[in-house]
Amino acid sequence: MVIMVKKEIEKEKESRIAGKITKLKNWFLKSSWKMKVLILLVILGIGFLVNTMIGKSQDGKVTYQTSKVEKGTLITSVSATGSVTTSNIQEVTTQATGVVKKMYVEDGQEVVKGQTIAEIELDLVGEQRNASAYASYLNAVKGVNSANNSVRSARASLDVVYDQIKGHDNDETLSMKETRTKAEVSYDNAYDGLKTAQASLVSAQFSYNQTSPIIKAPSSGTINLSVAQGLQLSAGSSSDASNKRVATITSEGTPIITVGISEIDIANVKTNQKVNITFDSLSDMTFTGKVVAIDKLGTTTSDVVTYTALVQMDSASPKILSNMVANVYILTEVKTDVLMIPSGAINTSSDGRSVQTMKDGGVIWVQVEVGISNDTHTEIVSGLNAGDEVVTSTTAQSASSESSDSTTSPFSGIGRTQSSGTVIRSSGGGVPMGPGL
After folding, report:
1. Is residue 379 a contact partner of residue 73, using CB atoms and an 8 Å limit?
2. Which pTM does this prediction carry?
3. How many angstroms separate the CA atoms of 117 and 218, rounded?
4. Residue 23: φ, ψ to 5°
5. What gap in Å lies between CA 200 and CA 18, rounded to an integer?
6. How far apart are the first and last CA of the chain?
7. Which of 63, 87, 73 lies closest to 256 in space, CA to CA?
């Protein structure tokens, strides 16, 4: 019964309101055109006034983007670009010319030092080179034998002189001294001649091996062939021999990378520092290594000074080849469990460094002491605690445009007084890691 009464009352109210609206409509339609214009102007004026008041109430509203002070690992690094100078690859070359008669190994096979790789059927130029090298080798052998005989003769003569002056250590005459000195000089000269002859023999042996039709492995490792059976090794003149690559042998070891360090960064680079390495051609792989040597002299090119550093990789990969471009990131300093904030939140002035922090719904300035920093984060030594919120940027809404906002640094146009605004919390901190970490 009560519900029915309420419904009847609501219907009666709606009927009265509808009647008033109808009367107002009829009155407006019967009014003169001047009255109609006046009414419309009044309505527009009221709407404009209300809109202006709403705009003024929102003018100057500032939104703050913040980040929390967090503990983590902060890493500073020096980046540089270089190339792989060695991948423990040794070339196998020959000066022999002709046709590859037979291959004794296959590509990718493990070989040992001295193992025969291939045999070449020499052409005329190749035979001439080989014969000339062999003649030089025989002359070198003869030279060593002759020098060795000279040493033996000089040694015997010196022993005779020593026997003659025996017992005259304290009363040696000038004649004895002269005889002894000449014998010692003759022996020294003969000995030096032997060393020279031996070096010439080694050189002649190498030249002969380079022209030999039998090619052998100079070291142990995995061989990668550059020739095949039946291939013609071209010949130049017999007097103008050039080395031709037959194969490469990859031995165990890790690649070396040469990089150039700028004069600004070189002071922070030291040997044994860890390095992260990436390659443009191996975008999905990251390697590690360490600095093993630094050239302190440097080179100047177009008034720019660079210093060469050698980086040795911790591991090898068959995908890494000589002359590949490498991007290295030398870890100059690593600090763990430190307070850090985004570097953009820090303001530097003559008074020191400071940041804006959120407290009790407002913004206050706090002086801070900083430590190391990288491209994104800075260590906070004092002035802040873990969990504090710092302002990283601000967004101020303008009343002149309903849809345009302006985002600024927290240090432009905001005085060091408390102010209120909307706070947007963002995930700050984290562990800023360089590429490859």
Report:
1. no
2. 0.56
3. 10
4. -60, -40
5. 124
6. 78
7. 87
